[in-house]
Amino acid sequence: MFNMLSIGKKISSLRKDKNLTQVELADQLGISYQAVSNWERGDSMPDISKLSELAEILEVSIDELLGHHKQTEVIKDLIDEKEIKVKDLNEEEIKDVLPLVKPKQVKENLDFDGLDFKQLLSIAPFIDGDVLSEFLLDMRSELSIDDLVKVIPFVDEEVADTIVLGFIKEDKVGTGKVLPLIPFVSEETVDLLANDLPEEEVHLIAPFLSEEKVNDIVSKAIAEGRMKDVMGLMPFTDLSFLTKDKIKDMFKK
């Protein structure tokens, strides 16, 4: 595991040995001196793209900078543009290495074949949404709602819509079971899901419905005398659709 404080102290010591200021080192690397300051305080790690240049300026090896770890070997392979099989990395190695990898390197140098869901979840915050979406769509038949709740925040609405509607269409779950996923799907999909929810449960997704859909549901509830349902939805409608006749209906029932 990388010790950022230890690495920072090493960079600071080596820089001083070279009689360089933070500004001078930063200028040679083409970065801000604040970045160098953050490294030396242990607040952040040098970007992979700068490691070779940094090691050359300080006249040390990357192993000397980062320490002798499996993670260091992975980083050196990435610098050399070698392919890395993510399934061969453990969770700690993933957490240490992937935050340092640029999106372009993720696409070009990381092989994601053969990942299981636990590994996919570990890398979700660090990889391109398109890459993650492909895996999720391929794996959706194996996933549960609990699995999706953990990973769906990292994909876009279109993919979230496909996955959620796919669950329902394939009769894997009822509409009510996907409620935890509602915040991540589009308004259009939420409107569709509302059609299949029991009337007394629609208020659970009201904050995510379109105003037009809420107005339609409230109008129907008024006509059918379901005032309890109406009250639960009123905070989510603009009331402009309430004609005099509808208001009279409300007080009649």
Write a brief structural summary:
With 253 residues, the chain is an all-alpha fold. It is built from 16 helices and two strands.
Structural features, described:
This protein has helices at about 5-15, 20-30, 35-40, 50-60, 60-65, 70-80, 90-95, 105-110, 115-125, 130-140, 145-150, 155-170, 185-195, 210-225, 225-235, 245-250, and strands spanning about 85, 110. It has about 250 residues and is mostly helical. It has a two-stranded parallel sheet with strand order 1-2. Helix 6 packs across helix 7.
Q: What amount of the residues lies in strands?
A: under 5%
> How much is the radius of gyration in Å?
27 Å
Low-confidence stretches: none
On the 0 to 100 scale, the average pLDDT is 83
The SS-based structural class is mainly alpha
Q: How many β-strands, per DSSP?
A: 2
Order of helices and strands: HHHHHHEHHEHHHHHHHH
Helix content range of the residues, please? 55-70%
Major sheet size, sense and barrel closure: 2 strands, parallel
Name the overall outline. elongated
- Helical segment count: 16
End-to-end separation in angstroms reads: 67 Å
Strand order of the largest sheet: 1-2
